[in-house]
Amino acid sequence: MAEIRIGDLTSSIEVTDTDSLLSPRVLAQIVQAVIEETERRERDAQSRDAQTRIGDGGGRR
């Protein structure tokens, strides 16, 4: 069993077929895609918060 941690996300993976293991390159691509999506969602949430904030100029930056 392997444990993968990305920020607040933790996932445990149990490998049952050794032929299905991911290469380090493919695993790095998956991790990068997850990081990029997590960062995009955080930016979206910050933007949404800024646009809906009352006071301090509202949605203006």
- Biggest pleated-sheet summary: 2 strands, antiparallel
Question: What's the total number of strands?
Answer: 2
> Gap between N and C termini, in Å?
47 Å
Question: Would you tell me the overall average pLDDT?
Answer: 79
* Secondary structure category: alpha+beta
How are the strands of the biggest sheet laid out side by side? 1-2
Number of helices: 1
Helix content: 40-55%
List the topology elements.
Blueprint: E1 2-6, E2 9-13, H1 24-52
Antiparallel strand pairs: 1-2
Provide tags for this entry.
two-stranded antiparallel ribbon, single chain, 61 residues, alpha+beta
Provide a brief overview of the structure.
This protein has 61 residues and is an alpha+beta fold. The protein contains one helix and two strands.
Descriptive account of the structure:
The N and C termini lie far apart (47 Å). The chain has 61 residues and is of the alpha+beta class. A hairpin with a 2-residue loop joins strand 1 (2-6) and strand 2 (9-13). It has one helix at residues 24-52; strands at residues 2-6, 9-13. Strands 1-2 form a two-stranded antiparallel ribbon. The protein is built from 1 helix and 2 strands; from the N terminus they run ββα. The radius of gyration is 18 Å and the shape is elongated. The protein has a domain at 22-52.
